[in-house]
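Appendix B, example 12.
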Amino acid sequence: MDNTPPAIRIPPAEVEDASALALVGSDAYSRDPVTLCLMGEQTPEGIEHRTKELAEGIAKKDPKTRYIKAVLGEDTVIGLGIWHFYLDEESSKSRVVDLDQKEWGPGANAEACRKFFGRIFKKRERMCGQRHVVLGCLATKIAQQGLGAGSAMLQYGVDIADEENIPVWLEASLEGHNLYKNKLLNIPRRTGSIAVYIQAEYHSAVDLKCNGQGLGQNPSWTLNIQERSLWEGDVESNRPSHLKSKLTTQNALKLLEMRRRRDRPPALAASPVTQDTAMPGNNNIQRGVPSLAGMSEWLRILGHSIDNQPITEDMFERYFFEVWECLTSSEIARLPRYLQLLALLAFHTFVKENVDAAIFETHHGGEYDATNVISKPVVTGITSLGMDHISQLGPTIEDIAWHKAGVFKTGTPAFSILQEDGLRAVLEKRAAEKGVSLTFVSANDALPDGSRVLSIPAQRLNCSLALEIVGAFLKLKAPDHTIDLGDISSGIENFSWAGRFEVIEDGPSRWFLDGAHNMMSLEQTAEWFSNNTNATGSPTFRVLIFSHCSADRDGASLVECLAHSILKHKAAPNCVIFTTYQESEGESTRIGNTGILSETSFPELSGLYSSIWTSLSPKSVVSIEPTIERAIKLAKHIGTQQGGMDVLVTGSLYLVGGALNVLQRQIGSS
């Protein structure tokens, strides 16, 4: 019996092949989450649209674009490939398609498609002006995958690039990224070397992998947090061996670990003192700090070419895939969860970028947090404790304090802001159990008065804590350096932190943005807003934009708290706008937003919030908008009518991050 597999041929595609090729694509991408998000479910009308699109493309006979097909046996079409060949500098500057003019198929989300493919084309610009080859599409029917059709279509383009001695640009999902890399190693080349760029699209690939395929927030984790650590059990014995060796590199960093409330500026990372004076006199020292508008914002490197900015998407993407390949190429029981992946990525990024001193915030608690693999930090700190993440860390404030003290490590000095007596006792007990020297910190008299930043009590305390931590760090790692009053003043003067007590000037209007999602934080936000808007002494028109849709906190109590606080400080808004976490219509959910939404629908929530507000502040006009963009548009319309306004945007950081994105687009283009 002849077991030889049927031969696969790769001839040029003809117009009459368009229908078969459309069916190949439909089948190949039928399980792909990106395609489902962008194009919707496959329908006969959608396949017909794609058939027409392919037929028109083939009929053009554009010399830069070659349509190929994989044929099994005599005439069974099982694969589609589209290659773009830019063999001179001029042709490489041309656009394959005008996304604004493109007609998308029935059921497609046109705005999402434009954004998605716009990002891809933006990345291709790095090849503009140089000869290169681009793989535009590679698809094989699911039933025939593994027979070599994909490899043969891949080799088709690589062979031509090899002959021309020009680079190849490939775009892939996470799975395709690894597949392409492995396949290319086995493709024979005439010249022996060829530059290959494998570009996995940043937003879609990372977002969908983390949100949709096992790395998102895991509901079961919230039920058993006290029984789990980073790798489902004991940190040292259960961590996969290959990751254990990788993670030992974190002890080569000089680490400062912080426990803070998510909605407040990171006491150390955002401290004006730390930003300006962590290791004075040495401009080459790099400091890594832990998102507001995008994934890459979780990681920042100070003293770097991207000083105090989130790492670039290209850098984030490069290191993400290095970590991802390590995870997927090894035999481990399960992949890390979302926050665990971020911790791994942070370690890897900071080591690769030669960071000297890294500041890590805990993601969630301390004792069972992903960052708790840090066994030898230089110094640790705890900011003010509040009733946050109650369902996971509570139910009592003392339980929360126990979790937060998980950052304490034997032999490592620890500092904390002054806490209530009961909480102080919990921290002191935990410190004694771990053999930790714990110091409680009050407001530092050396901090200057009259500073806009330090007018906020929480910031003055955070800055005081940061001074103690930085002092301890310098004493242990850079004893020849000290912090003087000039360092402190300079740091405070130059301090800024997006979305935390931030003010944006917009003509006659001002936007006050502060991510605050618990009662303690909202009280501080209300006081800050009042102090700033009442400072002029003249009446001001006020608008509030609020969103809180989390299943983890009681939104109704937060709305009530904010209303009481803002009325107490005589800063009642004339208009209140309740909205969602969605930035704009048709936009897919940003990474990190999954798994957090309340089971109560937005109409129900907004109705509840509206009734609470009007009962406490009946003079306020309440509106409801389905997206952040619509809420800001309404506020701007009100501001135009009033000749200016002061707007407070608060609640979830997801709201504040989305608002910053919208405002930067609108104000930046005006």
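The mean pLDDT is 77. The radius of gyration is 28 Å.
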